[in-house]
Design brief:
The protein is an alpha+beta fold and 1149 residues long. It has 30 helices and 25 strands. A hairpin with a 2-residue loop joins β7 and β8. The N terminus and C terminus are likely disordered.
Length: 1149
């Protein structure tokens, strides 16, 4: 498709070329190049000239009047306003507005631009546009063009370029959907009016396969989205307010707004933010107040219920108190019993203490009697100890003498053993001499035998033979290694050929498996669809009937037809699953899609029926137009799949023609409205107004989902190449197998020869080894012979041993003399030691007598001490018992005082004094009180509940008091906020109503705007619009159901016009508001909009429409700018366009 161009780019280029010309020539050239007349509607007698204009243009927008002329007109209008102080003069006719303000020249007043108005819009690769730039005017901007040419794309550009959400225009939600097909980058640039320098906002888009990115710029500086929104808010631009921005998809939505929603939209448009904040705060406070009222009523009811419940429990509480009095006396007896027990134990402890003192005196008396006996016993024990010491000393001397005696005997024995050893050594020397002579004979004999064996070996011959066998083995091994390498190479070659052959088989299988190719393609494009299909295959046994995936069931023979088919069918259809049974659909959703939260899968249920095409014409009738076939004839698929595709896309009425097909006649003279010709899709549409045909042309891209695979035109060639490759590989593999067998035979022969040579080599090596072993043995025998000859002389050793024996005998005689001396000492000490036993026995007898007397006294003392210990133990027990009883008594006393707060220390003493002193009487009174208390049946939980409820009653009374005070404060705050919010709102609504009533009169209808609400619910306040279009009707509230589409559109635009004096937004956008209006209302509304688009403080307006009524635009409408949108493969030349419309440009001359 050719690149789209813009008029304003050419305007700037031409203006640069004619800067040196005079003012009149400049205006004429600019007019011829870019200005489109306001009254550009053709009459019947001008249709012949219209046919001379080419029928299709390319993405072209033309603005009128020019920027320079508008500026001149604006300056003239301002000067005239200053001179006259007002505008004057308006004409009335059936085709002109009833109330039109014009200047003294009879033309409409050109309004001034508000800050934030759109000065310029530039689109690059945005939706249907390649590169387009245009400059809207300050008043009313009419955007004209047939349906599908890109008018609403301008609305989308304004929305997205000013940081609006895609939801506002009701189109695609992803950025990539706003970039022209086949492009990866795009931008929208909007220039907003501001003194002293305009603000230029650019939003750039960039996409790739995996991501989407957006970049923002303000006056060429890169900024964030938040900064752009902040700058937009400074201009009071509210794209989410339907009173300012009303795209085509939201027109019906505005009419369907509830009165409450209408109030919110109006508030955002005309009221300051702080006033809107008052309303929001009012709603929140009122909700809080309503909640408080509800809580207050609930608390009061709860308080009353609690008091009633406590009244029912008062008798139970009295019985409980009576029981407490009886138990109180019982507890008092318990305290008195504890006190008496304490006194009794205390008295017993004093008696035990007196007994302890008496026994201690008796113990002291026994100690005095034991004193003399202890002294005598100590003297005896001292003498006995001295005697025993002398005994030990004598024993020690006897032991020492015995030790010396034994040592001498040991030394004598050592000498005896030494003599015996020397004699044995003499015997051993004789034996060694005999052995030496025997060894010498044996070694000499062995040396002679080895010399005889060496004569049988020739070492040089054996070494030469071994060398020959090694060389022979090396040659055979090299041959064997070469054969092995050849075997490995041939084996690898066979394996390589086998792998190549397997690859050929795999390619042949893949070439034949069309579904597998498409599944691989689907896995990359839409993994969730592939995973769902895989799950269905695995769970096929659980399905009642067949399930089809559309893109896998379609078989197309020609690539071109596959591209056409995918272009004609939406993606959701090609990726849909088709079920024969509705239960299968529910099963798939419940068991897989819902569990995995997949919501982008479409499942269609269709009964099995034969496919019956509904062709609008027989194919032979269409052949004259160049039609080859219908689209449903280009592929094969199950009947159920074809029926679903037919239901959704009417592919049985889509024609396919050759490159020279007569597309214009085909689309106008037949019932065919869609055709594919030479990789282009032609869509024809007949206008319901002009009855003319318009054609939209789209390029056909390559198929993504339909992988034609084995059915393409190269299939036979590829199959033949694969077959030839297969035969070549099999032949090469067979030849290599024969080579391998021959090599294996050679290997076997070489292995046998190598084995024989290796054995011969081993035999030779063995003989050499035997020769070397004999030589080594001979060397060892010669060394052994030498060692025998070098053995020591035995005669000298014999002489040394004999001398050693003599010396040992002399020493033995000396030791016998020492032994005699020690024997005499032992005899002397033994006689002295025998005197001590008699002396020791006498001392021990005296010691025994004294001990017996001492033991009697000690036994008496121990008995007394035992008795004393028992008394002490008893006293300690009593002492602990006294302390325990005292603590227990104090605990009983303290517990009583704590439990019965009405008792003090004094009153407790009085109560205890009144009770008897006998412990049995106290037990009797205590038992009687407990029995009496048991007879009184009460529930302690009732008293706890009663007391707890009393506390709750008190807390509720305090909370009620606080809530009443808070409620009073909230009422005061509501009154203040209501005054701040309602007064400005009522003033605005009154002004809106006055303007709305006037506008309704201008177009011949009756209407009013009113504010309604209840002070008890500020959230439900509303603006009600009432209209009547006929005299016999009553005023009826505007709704989505009561009025017709045209009536709703009239009411909507009049209401929006009524807001413009109060609305501080810089511009408003209305998309196709005139659709559905009858000609009369459309003409009236247009004049009303035209009249409302002039003045000093008027917002810029955009009206998007595909058509206008004939003779609609007046010649003096200087406050209107018309933007024409062209779209098609061919472009209109600007000179021809200017020449054609020059005769209508009367108001600008």
């Amino acid at each position: 498709m050719p690149r789209r161009k813009t008029t304003n780019v050419e305007d700037k280029r031409k203006r640069k070329q004619i800067e040196s010309s005079d003012e009149e020539e400049e205006e004429e050239q600019i007019t011829q190049s870019s200005q489109i007349p306001n009254n550009a509607t053709l009459s019947d007698d001008e249709e012949d000239e219209e046919n001379e204009i080419p029928s299709k243009t390319n993405g072209h927008s033309t603005s009128q009047p020019t920027k320079k002329k508008r500026k001149q007109q604006s300056e003239e209008s301002e000067e005239e306003d200053d001179e006259n102080g007002h505008t004057n003069g308006h004409s009335q006719s059936s085709s002109q507005p009833n109330h039109t303000t014009t200047n003294k020249n009879g033309s409409y007043q050109l309004p001034k631009m508000r800050e934030g108005s759109i000065v310029r819009i530039k689109l690059y690769n945005f939706m249907t546009y390649d590169d387009c730039e245009f400059e809207p005017g300050p008043g009313l901007n009419l955007v004209l063009g047939p349906n599908g040419t890109g008018k609403s794309s301008i609305v989308g550009a304004i929305c997205l370029g000013l940081a609006g959400s895609t939801k506002l225009i009701g189109r695609a939600s992803k950025v990539r959907n706003f970039i022209k097909h086949g492009k990866t980058e795009a931008f929208v640039e909007i220039e907003l009016f501001k003194k002293p320098k305009n603000v230029i906002i650019r939003r750039a888009f960039k996409v790739n396969e995996n991501s989407e990115q957006t970049y923002w710029y303000i006056n060429g500086k890169k900024v964030s989205n938040e900064e752009v929104k902040e700058r937009i808010n400074q201009f009071n631009i509210q794209l989410d307010n339907l009173t300012q921005f009303l795209p085509q998809e939201k027109v019906a939505e505005f009419a369907g707004l509830t009165p409450v929603e209408r109030l919110k939209q109006t508030e955002q448009a005309v009221l300051p933010p702080e006033v809107i904040g008052y309303h929001t705060e009012l709603i929140e406070i009122q909700k809080s107040l309503n909640q408080s009222n509800f809580s207050l009523e609930t608390f009061e009811k709860n308080l009353e219920n609690l008091k009633k419940k406590n009244q029912l429990l008062e008798k139970e509480v009295e019985k409980y108190n009576k029981r407490l009095e009886v138990l109180e006396k019982s507890e008092l007896c318990k305290v008195k019993i504890g006190i008496i027990k304490f006194q009794n134990i205390q008295k017993e402890a004093r008696n035990v203490k007196e007994a302890i003192d008496k026994k201690a005196k008796e113990v002291d008396e026994v100690d005095k009697q034991m004193g003399p006996f202890r002294d005598e016993l100590e003297e005896i024990e001292k003498n006995l100890q001295l005697t025993q010491t002398d005994v030990q000393k004598t024993k020690s001397k006897i032991v020492d003498s015995k030790n010396v005696f034994e040592n001498v005997i040991a030394k004598i024995n050592e000498k005896k053993e030494s003599i015996l050893r020397c004699k044995q050594d003499l015997i051993n020397i004789e034996k060694r001499a005999q052995q030496k002579e025997q060894q010498l004979k044996e070694v000499q004999h062995e040396i002679e035998r080895c010399n005889e064996m060496l004569k049988n070996y020739n070492k040089q011959e054996l070494q030469n033979l071994l060398k020959e066998k090694k060389e022979e083995f090396k040659k055979l091994d090299e041959l064997y290694q070469k054969e092995t390498e050849n075997k490995i190479n041939i084996t690898n070659l066979i394996q390589t050929k086998s792998r190549e052959l397997e690859e050929v088989y795999t390619q042949k299988r893949k070439l034949l498996d069309l579904k597998e190719q498409r599944l691989n393609n689907l896995r990359k494009l839409r993994p969730e669809v592939y995973q769902t299909y895989d799950w269905i295959l695995k769970n096929k046994h659980a399905l009642k009937k067949n399930v089809y995936l559309t893109c896998l069931e379609v078989k197309v023979d020609i690539d071109e037809y596959a591209d056409y088919l995918e272009m004609n069918c939406p993606d959701w259809l090609l990726l849909s699953f088709i079920c024969e049974d509705n239960d299968d659909k529910n099963f798939i959703y419940e068991q897989y899609l819902d569990k995995h939260k997949i919501d982008k899968i479409s499942i269609i249920v269709r009964k099995i029926e034969p496919y019956v095409p509904n062709h609008p014409h027989p194919i032979n009738e269409l052949s004259k137009y160049g039609v080859i076939c219908y689209l449903d004839e280009t592929f094969e698929a199950p009947d159920i799949v074809k029926n679903v595709m037919k239901d959704s896309t009417q592919l049985d009425s889509v024609a396919i023609g050759h490159a020279k097909a007569k597309k214009d006649k085909l689309l106008t003279e037949t019932a065919i409205k869609c055709a594919f010709i030479d990789y282009k899709q032609f869509l024809s549409r007949k206008s319901s107004f002009s009855k003319n045909f318009s054609t939209r042309v789209l390029d056909v891209g390559k198929s993504k989902l339909f992988s034609v695979g084995g059915q393409n035109q190269n299939y036979v060639k590829i199959q033949q190449e694969l077959q030839a490759r297969e035969e070549s590989l099999i032949k090469e593999k067979d030849e290599n197998n024969k080579k391998l067998q021959m090599i294996q035979g050679n290997e076997i022969e070489l292995s046998k020869k190598i084995a024989i040579v290796r054995q011969q080599q081993k035999d030779t090596e063995k003989k050499i080894q035997q020769f070397e072993n004999i030589q080594r043995k001979l060397s060892q025998l010669q060394r052994q012979l030498q060692n025998i000859n070098q053995m020591e002389n035995t005669e000298e050793e014999k002489l040394n041993l004999q001398n050693k024996i003599k010396d040992s005998v002399f020493k033995q005689i000396t030791l016998h003399e020492e032994l005699q001396k020690q024997l005499e000492n032992v005899t002397k000490y033994s006689i002295y030691h025998d005197k001590f036993p008699v002396q020791i026995i006498s001392l021990k007898y005296s010691q025994k007598q004294v001990k017996e007397k001492t033991i009697d006294l000690e036994r008496k003392k121990k008995e007394l001490e035992r008795q004393l210990s028992e008394y002490n133990s008893t006293f300690q027990s009593l002492k602990l018992e006294v302390m325990s009883t005292k603590e227990e008594t104090n605990s009983l006393k303290n517990s009583f005082l704590e439990k019965y707060k009405n008792y003090s220390e004094d009153t407790l003493k009085e109560g205890l004094f009144a009770l008897p002193e006998e412990i049995d009487s106290l037990y009797e009174i205590k038992t009687r009180c407990e029995e009496e208390a048991d007879k009184i049946c009460t529930n302690p939980g009732v008293v706890v509940e009663y007391e707890q409820r009393c506390k709750e009653i008190k807390d509720l009374e305090n909370q009620l008091e606080e809530m009443k005070e808070s409620k009073s404060e909230q009422f005061k705050k509501i009154e203040k906020l209501k005054e701040k919010w309602l007064t400005p709102l009522q003033d605005c609504v009154q002004k809106i109503n006055d303007t709305f009533v006037t506008f309704c009169k201008h177009v011949g209808i009756v209407g009013e705007v009113s504010l309604k609400g209840n002070e008890t619910d500020y959230e439900k306040w509303e603006i009600e619009i009432k209209v009547k279009f006929r005299d016999d009707e009553k005023l009826t509230a505007l709704s989505a159901h009561r009025q017709s589409g045209g009536e709703r559109s009239v009411t909507t635009i009049l209401y929006l016009l009524s807001l413009q004096q109060l609305n501080k937004s810089p511009f408003r956008v209305v998309d196709e508001i005139n659709q559905g209006m009858d000609p009369t209302n459309e003409r009236k509304i247009f004049y009303q909009m035209l009249d409302a688009s002039q003045g000093d403080d008027i917002p810029q307006s955009f009206l998007i429409t595909p058509k206008l009524l004939p003779n609609l635009v007046p010649e003096n409408a200087n406050n209107i700018t018309i933007l024409f949108i062209y779209n098609g493969p061919e472009n209109i030349k600007q000179d021809a366009l200017a020449k054609y419309f020059a005769r209508f440009d009367k108001s600008l001359r």
